[in-house]
Each structure stands twice: as structure tokens, then as C-alpha cells.
Task: inverse folding
């Protein structure tokens, strides 16, 4: 049974987190995050800064 | 407002990512000194380049200890001088303009890349290392012969550079 943020009364809101833990989504976002960081490190630090004739002025 | 704990995590991650991207660019500017091509040079008359101190005679000139300036004119369809010959391990400032239409100036496979606009002077400073031959391509469509428009940038040893310095030709 799913519930939304607004459905729960304020009194049992604290228990809501335990009932709805989208670990799959969290894992997916963690993977996306890792891909973005690795891609940026490669594009900027290795491919861009590692090339010849960096423009310095 | 209630925000799920996981949602706080990925909100924080996205902010970390943005700060990392901005931090990288800042590091690039402060550390390795990556710079952009600015419009700091004064405008010139593209129709009177033959009266210009720098571009009447496109050339490479020594301006300091281990510092060189190259005055380059792009035209339909080529670059002058070609090849641009500079000594190894030096700092080279390329000043590039065009005498006819908009051209591109890209040292192939490197970050030295700018537009060559008639009446404008693009200034690009690079540090060259080991002797090497680079190709230069025009990357702005400039007419029927665009595809064949190319130049050369030769980084040569000190000795070779000295021996070529006296005579104008290769």
C-alpha cells in the first residue's frame, strides 16, 4: 500500500520513512552520480587539461 | 514540510556535483592557468593589413627571454606564415587576424583554438614543449576552398630555430 507525503497525519509522519524506503532509487541515483563524476574527471582533468597547448593567456 | 531522508541525500549530491563542476573550472583557471580568448586587442583595419606593424609581414618574433610572438594572417585559403616555426619549451603568443572573411584557427588536437575575424585580433598564449609538428585547420566555413585550408605549426629545437632565424626561407 503506497502513501503520499500529504496522506499521513503529522502524528505518524515519523514512522513514514520506515515504511517507504526507495533503496532502488537511491542506488540508481548513486550510480548516476558516480558516472557523472567519473565522466567529468575524464573530460576535464584528463582530456581537456591533458591536451597539448593549453591556452594560458 | 517533510522531506524524505533519501531525498535529502540526492538533493545534497546534486549540490555537491554542481560545486565540483564549478570548483574544477576554478581550479583550471587558478592552477594550470587556463584562459579564454578575450576581445582585449584593439580593432584594426582589415583592408589595410599591409600597413599594419604586425600583420604587414606575418612572422614569428622574439619578444623576451624564451617568449615569442607570432603574427598570423588567415586568408582564403591558407595561413601566413606557414609553417609557423617556434623553438621548443617556449611561451608563444599567437596574434591572429583575417584579411577577408571569418576563419577558424585550430591547432589540431590541442586546446589552441580561436576564430580569426577581419578587423579583430585574437590573442592566444600557449606553452610549447618538445619539438613537434602540428597541423592547423580552419574550422569556420570560409568559402569554396575551405576544406583545403590548412597551416603548420612547427616546434623545432633551439639550434634549428637559430639557423632558420637568419634566412627567411625554409
Result:
Amino acid at each position: 500500500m503506497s502513501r503520499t507525503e500529504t496522506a499521513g497525519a503529522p502524528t505518524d509522519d515519523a514512522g513514514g520513512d520506515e515504511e517507504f524506503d526507495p533503496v532502488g532509487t537511491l542506488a540508481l541515483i548513486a550510480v548516476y552520480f558516480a558516472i557523472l563524476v567519473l565522466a567529468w574527471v575524464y573530460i576535464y582533468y584528463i582530456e581537456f587539461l591533458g591536451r597539448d597547448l593549453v591556452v594560458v593567456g | 514540510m517533510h522531506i524524505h531522508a533519501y531525498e535529502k541525500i540526492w538533493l545534497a549530491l546534486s549540490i555537491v556535483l554542481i560545486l565540483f563542476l564549478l570548483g574544477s573550472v576554478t581550479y583550471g583557471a587558478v592552477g594550470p592557468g587556463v584562459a579564454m580568448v578575450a576581445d582585449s586587442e584593439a580593432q584594426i583595419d582589415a583592408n589595410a593589413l599591409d600597413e599594419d606593424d604586425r600583420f604587414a609581414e606575418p612572422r614569428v618574433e622574439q619578444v623576451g627571454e624564451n617568449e615569442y610572438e607570432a603574427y598570423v594572417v588567415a586568408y582564403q585559403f591558407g595561413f601566413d606564415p606557414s609553417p609557423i616555426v617556434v623553438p621548443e619549451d617556449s611561451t608563444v603568443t599567437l596574434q591572429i587576424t583575417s584579411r577577408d572573411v571569418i576563419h577558424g584557427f585550430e591547432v589540431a588536437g590541442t586546446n589552441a583554438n580561436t576564430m580569426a575575424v577581419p578587423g579583430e585580433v585574437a590573442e592566444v598564449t600557449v606553452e610549447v614543449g618538445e619539438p613537434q609538428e602540428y597541423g592547423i585547420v580552419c574550422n569556420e566555413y570560409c568559402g569554396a576552398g575551405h576544406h583545403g585550408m590548412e597551416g603548420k605549426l612547427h616546434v623545432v629545437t633551439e639550434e634549428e630555430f637559430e639557423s632558420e632565424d637568419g634566412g627567411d626561407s625554409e
Observations:
- The first helix of chain A runs from residue 13 to 19.
- The mean pLDDT of chain A is 78.
- The interface with chain B takes residues 5, 13, 16-17, 20-22, 25-26, 29-30, 33, 36-37, 40, 44-45, 48-49, 51-57 of chain A (CB under 8 Å).
- The two ends of chain A are 62 Å apart (CA to CA).
